[in-house]
Design brief:
Helices cover about 75% and strands about 0% of the residues. The chain has about 250 residues and is mostly helical.
Length: about 250
Amino acid sequence: MSTSTKHPSSPKPSQPKASTSASAASSSTGADADLEQVLSREASAFQRELEVERILKAFKFNPYDILDLDVTAKPEDIKRKYRQISLFIHPDKTPHPRAPDAFDILKKAEAELSDTAKREELDAAIASARTTLLRSLSLPTSLTDDDPRLKYLADDPKMQAQGLTTPWRIMLKEKIKEVLIEEEVRRRKAIKMNLANEGLEARKKEEEVAAKKRKAEEDKAWEETREQRVDSWRSFTNNSKKKKKQKIAILG
């Protein structure tokens, strides 16, 4: 009679609970998402502050610099860029203490570029600066900014020999700044002179009014003393006649 030998069964490996794994994964994903949002907000806030600083440091007499636009920008480009930046640096969204100042500067720049007459004046000054700079470099005034002679100006051995190693765009930016400052100085002098002339005219008018007032007062006083003068004259005349009669009587 054969006997069968029973082998002890090996224990089954324990299986991880599916719900626990899913919960841990979900928690990890949520934490990563929260961290990403925090980092995104911090990056956005930092970028907003950088943009505020850029506007504050931009050349105040050049609206193109403030709006970070090229002179060839179309009216719709100007409005679009203004709206984009103004929403980005709005004082309600930006913790920078000078965000309101940057916002006002941006608004003024957009208003100047939207004013046809002011933009034409600005463009004329910029064109003049460009022409003057090209002539000083003995280059044709018809060159465009993408011309290789301008793009690689700082690498030109002839320019380097003259000590000119500054890139064209930087040279042009500085020349425009110089010309716009000169224009602003002239403008302020003209305003000052106009105010002085207006002040002189105002003083002349005041003197004329004062002279007319004095004349009117003198005429009034003359009229008011007219009867008195007549009485004085009559009295003088009568006294003269009496003295004449007395003299005749004595001589007779």
